[in-house]
Design a protein that fits this description.
It is built from 18 helices and 34 strands.
Length: about 675
């Protein structure tokens, strides 16, 4: 939400340029603590200046200085708020005469412009013209205005402004009000009973609606206070021709620029004053202002609450305006939640925004939960004439989708299908260890569901999938369910990770071939897209007592010699990788109480006797153990070919040889 805040123009001491040549039209704190400043500078090129921003004792450098015409958004909605009392006849004619020049200046700057009109005396005369992008239509509107009457000197400028900011402007456009009057304004409490608004309320509405106010008005204190921080005052009683004043309004708009700075983090609602210093060849220009730290989404567990706001359209019937404003307020809250969610980090430095660009399922999930946000509070703000809502969303499905969006993966070199399950930890369950345990059970169930989907998609012939066979045979269905029940946990998070992230994840797998596998259950050949690895035609060598023994193909098992590492317990919880980091084996369980069926433990002497029993092991040497990872020396090209060999594919044997007691 763009928020424009009060700016106080500072008059500098002798020797420095007057601060009137540098002012700020608004501040956007929607990405707080990043602050986006809108400004205008007369008589100097801002790109030739060096800017710093001071907030009390803190000094910040600016970045990303851009001309307004360089911004991606090139739409603008102008609302002319016109005093039509008798004294304004000349100005009405001048606006008609200068309208084309005004529109040309805005159009030449590359803007898609629209015009609207609100007129007033001691009441709002007309405010339902709508918006038009046709210049002749706008000139016709103004040309038909009749300047007459007026009564007392003050007019209803505040009420006309309040009316203007509630008009249905384009959300993606710049919003500009051009106020033209030669009289002061009535206000609530001035004793006249004409106005329903105070200057403070109208200024808040201008800020809330993200409007810039260019006021062609008498240069008096009440208007100076109204304009400070939201635009600029042009003295209607100056000696300058009124037509030239309109040219100045258009020039000031198209010559605005923006810059950003990053401030420190503060509590919502805190008021912060700042001073911007622009140093150039002509001296130092200063403009100061303040902003209020915006409200932030209320985040608890995995829920976000956010407030949305929308004005009631004054041009339509009240009941219908309420309905439309309610929908707009909900959309405003949803937009802010979406912006917040995009910055949430899911994995490491990966944000939801990154995932939405690369993962269609994540994008759909994010848009879905935002679209179905729950309204938990709502009311009409009668002072601001706006609808306010508070909505809530649960963003757990985003992390769930991320960790399951790939559904499953075929890991052919490991002879298995893997799937991930993710479930949020309900921290209301006590003790917390039980909450994590419940989440773990849910994550396992989710992973099993993903595995079932994966298994059903496997081709068992060139044209037939497992799903097709399951539909035809209860026997095959029972076998597939048996394979699923045999799924095992390959990897999972621990208690501290689950508590930190708020969810528990597991990776589970089932074997494609071998005992208790999909291949065995179906009794048919599974379609396997095998990795492209070289065939092994040469023999490899293993060493025993300085004597070399050939190891003819096919290799039937891999023996990891870890006997020199002094391990006294089972390696079931260890991963095995090459010294270059290539994974050989990842455990299916973390417990040391038992081993997966394809893992064997024996001493080195027994392993070297395997050829006598018809086995043909490939022996690799373990060189170190670090963080539950065993590093081994191995020929990676031979290793890849070994995994490709059918016997290894079918049996999946990895033999861990251990030394010492406790094996």
């Amino acid at each position: 939400m763009r928020v424009k805040l009060c700016i106080a123009v500072l008059i500098l001491g002798a020797g420095l340029a007057l601060s009137a040549s540098f002012f700020v039209t608004g501040v956007d704190v929607s990405h707080y603590p990043e602050v986006l400043v809108y400004a205008s500078m007369e008589g100097r090129n801002p790109e030739a200046c060096t800017f710093v921003v001071k907030e009390g004792e803190h000094t910040f450098n600016i970045y990303d200085l851009k001309k307004l015409t360089e911004l991606e958004n090139r739409k603008v909605d102008f609302i002319f708020v016109f005093d039509v009392t008798g004294s304004m006849e000349d100005e009405i004619g001048e606006v008609v005469r200068k309208a084309k020049r005004f529109a040309d200046m805005v159009g030449e700057a590359g803007y898609d412009y629209r015009f609207s009109l609100v007129t007033f005396r001691d009441e709002i005369v007309k405010g339902d013209y709508g918006f038009t992008g046709d210049l002749e239509t706008f000139k016709e509107w103004v040309g038909k205005l009749v300047a007459k009457e007026g009564g007392d000197d003050p007019e209803l400028a505040l009420d006309a402004l309040a009316y203007a900011v509630r008009l249905p402007v384009r959300k993606d456009a710049a919003h500009v009000i051009v106020l033209i009057t030669d009289a002061p304004f009535h206000y609530k409490g001035d004793g006249s009973g004409y106005s329903s608004y105070t200057p403070e309320t109208v200024k808040d509405m201008i800020l809330k609606g993200n409007f810039t106010l260019f006021a062609v008005v008498p240069d008096i204190e009440e208007y100076r206070g109204l304009v400070v921080g939201v635009g600029k005052l042009f003295d209607i009683h100056s000696s300058e021709d009124f037509g030239k004043i309109l040219d100045s309004v258009a020039t000031t708009f198209v010559k605005q620029f923006t810059f950003k700075y990053k401030t420190i983090d503060r509590m919502p609602g805190e008021k912060v004053s700042f001073i911007v210093k622009a140093r150039g060849s002509g001296g130092i220009l200063e403009a100061g202002g303040s902003y209020t730290v915006p409200p932030r989404p209320e985040v608890e567990e995995q829920e976000i609450c956010m407030e949305g706001f929308a004005f009631l359209d004054p041009t339509i019937e009240y009941g219908r305006a309420i309905v439309i404003a309610r929908e707009a307020a909900i959309l405003d809250a949803q937009r802010q939640i979406l912006e917040y969610l995009k910055g949430v980090k899911i994995a490491g430095e990966t944000t939801v925004s990154d995932l939405m660009l690369s993962d269609e399922k994540v994008r759909t999930t994010v848009e879905g939960i935002v679209k179905h946000a729950q309204v938990i509070e709502e009311d009409v703000d009668k002072d601001m004439e706006a609808y306010v809502v508070k909505v809530k969303v649960n963003f757990k499905p985003i992390s769930d989708t991320y960790y399951t969006s790939s559904g499953f993966e075929y890991v052919w070199h490991e002879n298995m299908i893997k799937a991930r399950g993710v479930v949020a930890v309900n921290k209301k369950i006590k003790p917390l260890k039980r909450a994590v345990l419940v989440a773990r059970r849910g994550a396992i169930a989710e992973a099993q569901k993903q595995l079932l989907a994966a298994i059903k998609g496997v081709y068992i012939t060139s044209q037939t999938r497992v799903e097709d066979k399951v539909a035809q045979s209860d026997v095959i269905r029972a076998k597939v369910e048996g394979v699923l029940r045999g799924a095992f946990v390959i990897e999972e998070c621990d208690f501290s990770e689950a508590m930190e992230k708020g969810y528990y994840w597991v990776v589970m797998g089932v074997y494609i071939s071998g005992d208790e596998s999909l291949y065995k259950a179906l009794g048919e050949t599974v379609k396997v897209e095998e990795p492209d690895v070289p065939d092994v035609k040469e023999t490899t060598l293993r060493k025993k007592d300085e004597k070399l023994y050939p190891a003819p193909i096919p290799i039937t098992s891999i023996v990891v010699d870890a006997s020199k590492l002094g391990l006294k317990f089972s390696l079931a919880g260890y991963s095995i990788v090459t010294t270059t980091g290539k994974l050989i084996y990842k455990p299916s369980m973390r417990s040391n109480e038992s081993l997966p069926p394809v893992i064997y433990t024996l001493d080195v002497e027994s392993a070297l006797k395997l050829p006598e029993t018809g086995e043909n092991p490939y022996i690799v040497k373990a060189v170190k153990v670090e963080d539950n990872v065993v590093y081994v020396e191995v020929d990676e090209e031979f290793l890849a070919a070994t995994f490709k060999a059918k016997d290894i594919r079918k049996e999946g044997k990895i033999i861990l040889t251990l030394g010492g007691e406790g094996v």
